[in-house]
Amino acid sequence: MNTYTQLCRRRFLEGAGVSVGAAALRALLDDDGGGRRPSSAPRAKSVIYLHMEGAPPTLDMFDRKPTLDRFDGKKCPDEFLAKERFAFIKGHPKLLGHQHGWIRASNGIEMCELFPHLAQQMSDVTLIRSMYTDQFNHAPAEHLLFSGAPRPGRPSMGSWLSYGLGSESRDLPDFVVMVSGGMPSAGKALWSAGFLPSVHQGVEFRSAGEPVLYLQNPAGYDRARRRRSLDALNDLNRIHEQRAGDPETTTRIAQGELAFRMQASVPDAVDLESESPEVHELYGTTPGAASLANNCLLARRLVERGVRFVQLFDSGWDIHGTSPNDDLMTQFPKQARRLDRPLAGLITDLRRRGMLDDTLVVWGGEFGRTPMNEARNGSKFLGRDHHPHCFGLLMAGGGVKRGAVIGATDELGHGVTDNPIHVHDLQATILHLCGIDHKELTYKFQGRPFRLTDVFGKVRKELLA
Description:
The chain has helices spanning 3-15, 20-26, 59-62, 66-70, 116-119, 138-147, 157-165, 223-244, 247-269, 277-283, 292-304, 331-352, 423-433; strands at 46-52, 102-104, 110-112, 125-132, 175-180, 203-204, 309-314, 359-364, 368-373, 384-387, 391-396, 405-406, 408-409, 416-418, 421-422, 443-445, 448-450. The protein is α/β, with parallel strands linked by helices. A hairpin with a 6-residue loop joins strand 13 (408-409) and strand 14. The two termini are 39 Å apart.
């Protein structure tokens, strides 16, 4: 057993508040220095989570409402406004019908015509129409979705999976993050390790330019010299750890070693130009450009090499209708073009390579959009306000059903009428698919055990294949 593993084992037992019985039951650490063993047979080895920051109008994408079209421009019924609180809508809003046509998807449902490639892949996808959340502003809703609480400070979903399962790869991080279109509202806290050891924090990759900052050694500083310097630093850190007993010293040793290995492994992992022209056409990538398409292709390459959790954030989906830059007629089609081919390509590519069965793909936003036109300050552009009561989400591969539609909303798309699924339920189900009981994956902090699902959540078996 190496020194890093010995230190990790001792610090988890002494510092993390894990009982000896629980450690024996769940086999906290193996001799490769990482992770618990799954509490059940995992269906998914890796997760690719595509988060559309700003909350896409899934009502206009996957949940056609003929009644909404019939009453387009009419005042919203009073019963839908009782005790309602909106982020921006004032007064008595008018209903807003769908602004784009519909096509038949491969699983038989109607989908927005702006997503022709994704429509062809829906027989491999489960559509949830009945998601809901407690928050109606972006940052709190994103915190709730990814950390289980609406405020920053808790570990993110990828960090929990890194802590709970350890690594499939010695040469790449457990948890990788990529951003396109701008930083999400909640910022980098969305991939923070919170109070978990910081070795479990997400590592940000870039799809253009140097993939990881400072990956190359300075001029005149070769790899052998880097190795000698790191060995000397590790010796000093081990002495400090034995004296101070600080588990973050162990983390520094682990991070330094991983960074050294990444200098050799990352250039190959992110070499998108090595992919065939057919694969680039499948994803719609532009070599050398920072894009959602490039990030989707890079996500496949990373999970192929053992990365546990890849989080893709894509901004530009906050469709309020205050200008052409955030409306249903200009911005929404633009975003659809950016998403349609890459997401469809990712699902297709994983399936062709035999990876879809054990790779879980999740797509969605932080909440939904209202069936009413926002018309903020009398705007003539068309858009929808924040709406926590219902929204759509897609899941594919990794043990979920294929071609299924789960849940339903009312005739206007205002509220859930069948099978409501809270974001805590989603978290519990994702962990279950990865072989983890969400009630058992805990970490003691400030005197009590915490978990991703807080004190809520249940595995939604209707989603499972």
